[in-house]
Amino acid sequence: MSTQSSTTAIRFPCAGCAGPMVFDAESQNLKCQYCSAEQTIENMMEQPQEHPFSCSDEDMTELQDWGTEQQAIHCETCGGETLIPASQTTSLCVFCGSPKVLPQDDVRSIRPESIIPFQVSRDKALSSFAAWKKKRWFLPNSFKKQNVSSQLNSIYIPYWTYDTETYSVYSAEVGIYHYRTVTRTRVVNGKTETYTAQERYTVWHSTQGDYDRSFDDILIPASGHYDSGLLHKLGDFNLSELHMYKPEYLSGYISERYSVSREQGWDNAQEVADDQLKTDIKRIIGGDEIRNLRIRTTFDDITYKHLLLPVWNANYTYKSKAYYYMVNGQTGTVSGHVPRSAIKITLFTLLCLGIVGAIVVLVMMNQQPQV
Ligand SMILES: [Zn+2]
Ligand SMILES: [Zn+2]
């Protein structure tokens, strides 16, 4: 981990030796970094609270209380924004490894409502990567042996989830396919002849209606660093294992500061809901084709919560080129890039060409006229 304790007061001191205690993924407890003593975290598995989307400034101030002092860090190289407990320092950017990291003054961010604590330890993340790496094709031999462990960082990635009740009115034209038998002519061997065929035509009629539905936990990534495509490759997080946020879970860990605001997140959630509503309404309308579909939706009872989900992030350099990989901190699913050996790819291509060539020769030989 690129964090270490500094002179700032220790937030969770060890009862035995007063050393700093950090969250331990193996035991799910706080663990002393000096004497390895453990302390259980009161497990709060109750349902996380959803907050109304519109709220007063006072409520907002209350929502910004993380229960521990957080320091915002900005990376000059990649623009990454992270939050670390104030009792820790960081010298390298967790995203890109750059040393150009600067503390920021403004740390007002909404605290997470719930969190999936790390369940995959550093060792497990490394062995997941090693197993995944083995299954990649065309790895250079020297890379297979290389240990890329040193730049592995644990980071909590920010998400929003939104709930809402929707009411939609829609209108559209729906087309139903019909078939009729038609008589056509064609020319065969210089002679014109008639024949019958089935011809499709579409009958259109207009339709309208209304549709109610409720949405629960529309998950919207709030990361400024990882795009949703990349996060998607990490596999699904099991949101039924959400814990209520406690500052203990962040002890020793860095979290990314959300770059997508609560309001932007809601805009994105509306798009997700709109797409889903369109699919639902098309299914209700039925028919073979739909055109001029118009949907007007009102969103009510909007609530949201802020989540932190665990990811191991690694940047490494191989032959002066940068690569990265990530490991889902809950499930161990790996996603990333590995170097490829140009020689192995060339040899494989030649081998494939050789096999194709051999097949072509065999086929041609079989097609020789029999004597
Ligand atoms: Zn201790
Ligand atoms: Zn960076």
Descriptive notes:
It is a single chain. By secondary structure, the chain is of the alpha+beta class. The chain has 2 domains: 3-170 and 207-340, no CATH class; 175-204, no CATH class. The protein contains 6 helices and 17 strands. It has helices at residues 57-63, 122-134, 141-145, 228-233, 262-285, 342-366, and strands spanning 3-5, 21-24, 29-32, 38-39, 51-52, 70-75, 81-85, 88-90, 101-104, 114-115, 152-188, 191-221, 243-244, 254-256, 289-318, 321-328, 334-336. Strands 5, 6, 7, 9, 10, 11, 12, 13, 14, 15, 16 and 17 form a 12-stranded mixed β-sheet that branches. A hairpin with a 2-residue loop joins β15 (289-318) and β16. The longest helix is centred in the last third of the chain and has 25 residues, at 342-366. The model is unreliable at 1-7 (pLDDT under 50). The structure holds zinc ion (ZN) (2 copies).
Determine Rg (CA atoms, Å): 29 Å
* DSSP summary: helix tally: 6
Structural class by secondary-structure content: alpha+beta
Low-confidence region ranges: 1-7
How helical, in percent, are the residues? 10-25%
**What's the overall average pLDDT, rounded?**
85
What's the helix-strand series?
A: EEEEEHEEEEEHHEEHEEHEEEH
Proportion of residues in β-strands: 35-45%
Small-molecule binders: zinc ion
| Count of separate structural domains | 2
